[in-house]
Amino acid sequence: MDIVYAAEKPSIAMLLSEYTKRNVQPDEIDVSENPDETGSFFIGFRLSHFVLSPDGKIKSDRELERTVAAAGNQ
Questions:
Q1: Chain segment 33-59, per-residue pLDDT in tens
Q2: Deepest of 7, 15, 54, 57, by most Cβ within 10 A of its Cβ?
Q3: How far apart are CA 68 and CA 1, in angstroms?
Q4: DSSP character string of 6-56
């Protein structure tokens, strides 16, 4: 698992760079598996937190909270 994890971290940093519109280096992020969804990862970058879904989309934790709250209000 460590080898795959290390190989994926640069890819995750690249996706986060595109999402945040700034250069993010692999050593600037903390990545951990999301136990609630296979293939999903939690990403910590400075004081912000993000979720990478299995389909390769990144959302901020605030964006995710709004989506969950909106779904609960329906």
A1: 888 888 889 999 999 999 998 888 899
A2: 15
A3: 30
A4: HHHHHHHHHHHHHHHTS---GGGEEEEE-TTSTT-EEEEETTEEEEE-TTS
